[in-house]
Amino acid sequence: MNLSDVPLRPGSAELLPVRGVRALQAFDNRDWVAVEVPVALEFNGIAHAVMLATPADLADFALGFALSEGILLGRNELYGVEEAYGPEGITLKLDVASAAFARLKERRRSMAGRTGCGLCGTESLAHVTRALPPLADGPALSTRAVARGMRELASMQVLQKVTGAVHAAAWCSAEGEALLVREDVGRHNALDKLVGALARSSVAASTGFIAVTSRASFEMVQKTVAAGVPLLAAVSASTSLATAIAQDTGLTLAGFVRSDDLVIYTHPWRLNGLPANA
After folding, report:
1. H-helix or E-strand containing 190?
2. Does some domain include residue 133?
3. Angle at CA 189, nearest 5°, toward 104 and 262?
């Protein structure tokens, strides 16, 4: 596939030499590989976290990370983002309001040792989850809309089609139209990018749902709730903690969303179109 034929984000993939075997025949070629680099986040000059991410949509990533982690309470608390490129990676320098910076300093100890896949190194059980406001009821959604949203997300995964190595997250309208899509090597990063893009857009987050190409871990649930979105649809399963948080916050959580099939873990009342029990 020629990179010029698809609207890939600049810097998200690179051509590398590869050697392989197909039909018992050896070959040498060049193939597109997803770019993965360290991305550091600084808030008012203070280093906070380093993530391994795809270096595209970084302004969305910075805003979405800060919002979904509860550092910012709104887009208006972010004054600007500077991207600094160096030999070891990229630094995102966020200029945030003093209230947000004070909030960050209060949370810094609870973020100790955090990784892209969980909370390794967190100092106490109380730091695993944080209080989140309950979600509004939102619009009535249908299982057909959820299925459509997952199909449209798959069709819009440009970087995944080229590299086969990334996750994606989409915000979909109540009818299932995927209006915003973001990709990244990390599933949390893809969702953070989407949350940032959603915050910058003119759409109301609570009027649709989020579809993701991963399992529904508790962090994916927390980020969805923090964004004010009432339904999370995942292509794979939920976990027990994710299910408990979804139940407590009023999030409708659906997993194994494939074709017209799905499993609903919490708050099925928000979904129409479920067949009656035999």
Report:
1. helix 187-200
2. no
3. 120
Q: Is the distance from CB of 247 to CB of 218 less than 8 angstroms?
A: no
Whole-angstrom distance, CA of residue 222 vs CA of residue 68 = 7
| Residue 135 covered by a domain | no
CB 145 within 8 A of CB 177: no
Tokens of 175: 């009818």
Q: How far apart are CA 234 and CA 62, in angstroms?
A: 23
Tens-digit pLDDT profile for residues 222-246: 999 999 999 999 999 999 999 999 9
**Considering the entire predicted model, what is its pTM?**
0.90
Residues tagged active-site: 117
Query: Is there a single domain that holds both residue 223 and residue 263?
Result: yes
Q: Do 69 and 8 belong together in one domain?
A: no
Please give the residue range of the domain that contains residue 25: 3-34
Euclidean distance between CA atoms 31 and 3, whole angstroms: 10
Q: Which CATH number is 109's domain given?
A: 3.10.20.10
Do 22 and 83 lie in one domain? The reply is no
CA gap 266, 30 in Å, rounded: 46
95-138: pLDDT as tens digits? 999 999 999 988 775 554 444 444 444 444 455 667 888 898 88
Which DSSP category does 88 fall into? T
Give me the residue label for tokens 């070959």: 27
Q: Are residues 154 and 261 in the same domain?
A: yes
SS3 133: coil
